[in-house]
UniProtKB/TrEMBL annotation:
Its EC number is 1.-.-.-. InterPro entries: Aldolase_TIM, NADH_flavin_oxidoreductase, OxRdtase_FMN_N. Residues 18-349 form the NADH:flavin oxidoreductase/NADH oxidase N-terminal domain. One of its GO terms (molecular function) is oxidoreductase activity. Keywords: Flavoprotein, Oxidoreductase. This is NADH oxidase.
Amino acid sequence: MDRSRDLKYYAGGQKLKKLFEHSSIKDMQLKNRFFRAAVWEKLATEDGHLTSELSRQYEELAKGNVGTIITGYAYITKDEQPNPCMMGIYSDDFISEYKILTDTVHRYGANIIMQIVYGGSMTQLNPPSENILGPSAVKNELTGITPIAMTKKDISYIVKAFANAARRSKEAGFDGVELHAAHGYLLSQFLSPHYNQRADEYGGSLENRARILLEVVQAVRAEVGERFPIIAKLNSEDFMEDGITQRESIVVAKLMEQNGLDAVDVSGGNPSDPNVIKNNLTPSRSKIILKKQQSYFKEYAQKLATEISIPVILTGGNRSYDVMENILNTTNIAYFGLARLLISEPNLIGIWTAGDLKTPKCVSCNRCHSTSGSRCILA
């Protein structure tokens, strides 16, 4: 059964929105409302190049009818790698190999978006890169790393690195880019009063703390043109005593929209704070089988979607088809990001497309995070 032909209606006659229907973000055509949320697959080479196993994972997702794939994060400067065996996009040398990947994904009618990042003191590389930049020289409680406080020259360097990474992504055939501004990585740190203790125009007020994000969006737009989608992954809040709040996050999203952003991918939690991990407030929360525990950033995303006119992608704890369908039809949330479900079953969207709205195998145990290649222990 093709769910896209199901002619249900609201009480009152309003046509029901469907998870399997076409839409668009700028020039990117989406065949359904499902995104594969970014996952660090740990399958690239040590210097960030593709491997056959990593390419095969993306092909499996495309074959499984995922509408839009967001890659694992790719690092944008050769001298700073946040994690081992993650993808890179710091050189034009990557363009030709990624073009093979994007052509493969497109053959199945799927989109693929490159997520780009500067890690900063959240790095898990061992030993870490020699020169790690941050908004201020504040020690990261999770990694123990104190970054080098960025000069304005450093800020310009990073802004340009994001722009160049986006240009390479477009030239390689990706359908858009996602700026990683969540989870305690560099752009997220600039938003956080805990990590950003600057006294210049990049610190202090929220508008100043958001300045680098706006400059990144502007620089990326100048490189990729008006029709290429730019998405930002943004924390709903850090869940830290002195982190970014929900109210502030909405203001940041509005500012980014005004500066050319095309969609917001909602997440939350800064795992550099031990209490975030202790209290199960990370981006990948465990033990969320019950429906009332699922889609745990929904309330923020629902409010955000009434405050901005660009699409909101809800990521985090989306598990049940009927829960997502209800959210779609009772809020302005437009899309849904899935990660762990598709680690366990890369063909799950295809199964749902055929009308079998099965319960996913994934039990949110998070054991995939500690396996080689981020694989499901139940698969």
